[in-house]
Amino acid sequence: MNILPKYQVICWNKTSRTTTHRDLIRKEPLSIWIQGKPYSVVLRTPGDEIAHVAGFCLSEGIIDTLADCVTIAYCDETDTNVVTITLKSTRLKKISDHLD
User: Fold this and answer.
1) How many CB atoms lie within 10 A of CB 92?
2) Which long-range contacts (CB under 8 A, 24 or more apart) does 77-83 make?
3) pTM here?
4) Chain CA centroid to CA 50, Å
5) Any idea what DSSP says for residue 79?
6) How far are the Cα atoms of 7, 8, 22, 61, 96 from residue 70, in angstroms, in the given order?
7) Would you give the distance in Å from CA 1 to the centre of its chain?
């Protein structure tokens, strides 16, 4: 995945302009699904989506540790903008009110 695509940009100063190519960071939405249902959409720089979702779920109180998860995976291997997390039944019982 090319996180820093090159774009042609115009640089201006007081007397002239120049054209050059620069690396620009792109942003994309990341849809986070829990137990097969949409939970949240966040904006992020592509890369490390699984770690991003794990950290997000930790900060939201959905998990206390990675041991609370059965799986964290892309919903579709060709679409890295949707990640789903499946929780252990014991954890799901503890936070079921949080997911409604």
Assistant:
1) 16
2) 80/1, 80/46, 80/49, 81/28, 81/29, 81/30, 81/31, 82/30, 82/31, 82/33, 83/30, 83/31, 83/32, 83/33, 83/49, 83/50, 83/52, 83/53
3) 0.76
4) 7
5) E
6) 40, 44, 41, 16, 16
7) 14
Task: Give the gyration radius of the chain's Cα atoms.
Answer: 19
Pairing of strands 69-76, 79-87: antiparallel
Domain 26-99 has CATH 3.10.20.10: yes
Alpha carbon distance 94, 100 (integer Å):
12
User: Consecutive 10-residue runs of the chain (100 residues): their mean pLDDT?
Assistant: 73 90 86 94 91 95 96 84 95 88
